[in-house]
Amino acid sequence: MASKKGIALTIGIAAAIIGSSFLIWYIPQSSPGGFIDAPRTDSEVIGDVYARHNDLATSIELRFEQWKNNNDTAVAGDMPAQLASAKSQIEQMRRDLDNHQPAQEWQESYDIYMQALDSYAVYLDALELKVDSGDKTDPDQTLDQRWRDLVDQSVEAMPI
């Protein structure tokens, strides 16, 4: 027959195991930022924004072409939502650059890229006007070329 002392010790050990298991599960759940990510380099931050921006621009360009060439109401109805989402993504990219404090040699590239994002937002506004009015012509090409030129200038200013 087990002694009271042995039973109490077994219950204590079981409680400690269960409690520590719960804490191992709970702590990462309650503080997802608890584990510090390795700091990202200046080139990683701007490179990530560059990749996301180019993916977004390609996607919007494709969807706009589909909208122009298609009288399907599903495509037409989706275009304003796509543009709103694109604007939101551009704002997030701008915040990503703005929140990162690059080294001095990267600052010019960051500043120019933020101008490129602002210019792309103006281009998105022009697309939105076209879609809202049902005008299936391309927006002013100088708007498209402006943001592309700024991206190129930003890349040229990178200290690589």
Provide a descriptive summary of the structure in words:
- With 160 residues, this protein is an all-alpha fold.
- It has two domains: 4-34; 42-156.
- It contains five helices and no strands.
- It has helices at residues 4-30, 42-69, 73-99, 104-133, 141-156.
Number of helices: 5
**Amino- and carboxy-terminal Cα gap:** 76 Å
What percent of residues adopt helix (DSSP H or I)? over 70%
Rounded Rg = 26 Å
Shape: elongated
Number of strands: 0
Query: In the residues, how many domains can be counted?
Result: 2
**What low-confidence regions span 5 or more consecutive residues with pLDDT below 50?**
none
Decide which structural class fits the backbone: mainly alpha
Percent range for β-strand residues: under 5%
Overall mean pLDDT score?
84
Major sheet size, sense and barrel closure? none
* SSE run: HHHHH
